[in-house]
Amino acid sequence: MQSSQASRVTPLQRYPRWRNIPPHPSALWLSGQMAHRIHSSSVVQHGHVTRPEPGTGIKIHFEDSKGTPIRTVEANVGDDLLSIAHEYDIDLEGACEGSVACSTCHVILTPEYYDRLPEPDDEENDMLDMAFGLTDTSRLGCQVVLTKELDGMKVALPSATRNMFVDGKKSTH
């Protein structure tokens, strides 16, 4: 009776052409077998917002798709619209939690404030192409980072989004 070790076929035996492919830099050789290192990175607190003292922050006016005010909030330079909306319980989804992999944080800005922002990159434009109710002044809320020049900005939420529910639950960001 043969032992299980003796009859075991390794991937290199099964696919001899793999011998000519150099191992990935993260590969380790353990007991003649290739294994991969596990990489990890530090935890990043996506969406963490510290509310400014009243009267000291940048004012953002959130409106619904019909122009009805939802809420005026204050935020700090460097905060993004998605994180601010979540901090103040404004219904802006953000299913991908700010990783630019969806269009559920789509917002519509007034032309005056849209022109004060840097141009959207290709990744953001690709996601905006999938947004419901796209306009010339549409942006992804996760990509709009506040500066002092944006104080008083009006942000309209579209009437609907695509991918509103993920696995039956809204994102908690």
TrEMBL record:
<dbReference type="GO" id="GO:0140647">
    <property type="term" value="P:P450-containing electron transport chain"/>
</dbReference>
<dbReference type="InterPro" id="IPR012675">
    <property type="entry name" value="Beta-grasp_dom_sf"/>
</dbReference>
<protein>
    <submittedName>
        <fullName>Adrenodoxin, mitochondrial</fullName>
    </submittedName>
</protein>
<dbReference type="InterPro" id="IPR018298">
    <property type="entry name" value="Adrenodoxin_Fe-S_BS"/>
</dbReference>
<keyword id="KW-0479">Metal-binding</keyword>
<dbReference type="GO" id="GO:0009055">
    <property type="term" value="F:electron transfer activity"/>
</dbReference>
<keyword id="KW-0411">Iron-sulfur</keyword>
<comment type="similarity">
    <text>Belongs to the adrenodoxin/putidaredoxin family.</text>
</comment>
<dbReference type="GO" id="GO:0046872">
    <property type="term" value="F:metal ion binding"/>
</dbReference>
<dbReference type="GO" id="GO:0051537">
    <property type="term" value="F:2 iron, 2 sulfur cluster binding"/>
</dbReference>
<keyword id="KW-0001">2Fe-2S</keyword>
<dbReference type="Pfam" id="PF00111">
    <property type="entry name" value="Fer2"/>
</dbReference>
<dbReference type="InterPro" id="IPR001041">
    <property type="entry name" value="2Fe-2S_ferredoxin-type"/>
</dbReference>
<dbReference type="GO" id="GO:0005739">
    <property type="term" value="C:mitochondrion"/>
</dbReference>
<dbReference type="InterPro" id="IPR036010">
    <property type="entry name" value="2Fe-2S_ferredoxin-like_sf"/>
</dbReference>
<dbReference type="InterPro" id="IPR001055">
    <property type="entry name" value="Adrenodoxin-like"/>
</dbReference>
<feature type="domain" description="2Fe-2S ferredoxin-type">
    <location>
        <begin position="56"/>
        <end position="161"/>
    </location>
</feature>
<keyword id="KW-0408">Iron</keyword>
